[in-house]
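Q: My labmate handed me this sequence with no annotations at all. I'd like to see what the chain might look like in three dimensions before we decide whether it's worth expressing. Could you predict it?
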Amino acid sequence: MNPPLVSAGLTTRNRAHLLPRAVESLLNQTHKNLEIIISNNGSADDTERVALAYAAKDSRIKYFKQDGKISGLKNLQFTVEQARGKYFMWACDDDYWEPQFVGKLAAVLEENPDYISAMSHFYERRIGGSEEEIKLRQHSYTNLSNKELYKVYLRARERPTFLFALYRSNVRKKMEIPHCFNGIYVFLQEAALAGKAYSVPEYLFTWTNDLRPTMVRHAEHHYNRSTVKPFAVTKYVFTLPFRLFFSKVIPFRRKFLIFGPWLRRAWTYKIKIAKDFLGVLRK
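A: Here is what I predict for the chain of 283 residues:
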């Protein structure tokens, strides 16, 4: 039986010097039934030349160029929409993967149909500080219930590891990361209630975590020049349960798991919410 097609959505912007390592670590996967969707978000460096050179050598690579006027999250969603595979993973241009990453995660999902995502332990490569660090990161989500995992992501204290997981495409295509406060965690909360997450206890992924603020890392991108909007936290708190309740991927029987944990979490934001409304009254 042929292994399932896996789609990797690789988003990039002005990272011509890093792109080769990311692309080559994907091309070197032992799971060969792979398509790599590179979406270049308006780079001004040699990113296009590098990407086209790889695409000319390997037909598994599909290259697209955006005009640079969309956010990184919209660029990611574009790659999801182009994906043809049974499974989908997001690939960042400054990360890299061990050769067994795709094969082992795809095998887990093939063998466990009630799980919608799988992710390995990983190395966190921390840059942008006084010196580079490598930290080992683990997670143990396999035996968590949907509600327990939802509560983990509501707290928003754990690293958003499963953003980089391998997902079933038929679920992933119905989900989008909102561009708002805690948007990544909103996505993960929805995923937690949609299906179970499998933790593979091997270090197969290296995540580069740039500690500098977004405004410093992407100062040239117009989308990142605006400050955080007023009422960002308040809007997040009050729109979250509606977004989850009307989700297309959360089964109806699980939608009633949303409200109890949400109420407890909303209470922790009470001071911030009060300040938002007091600010309006003062004006």
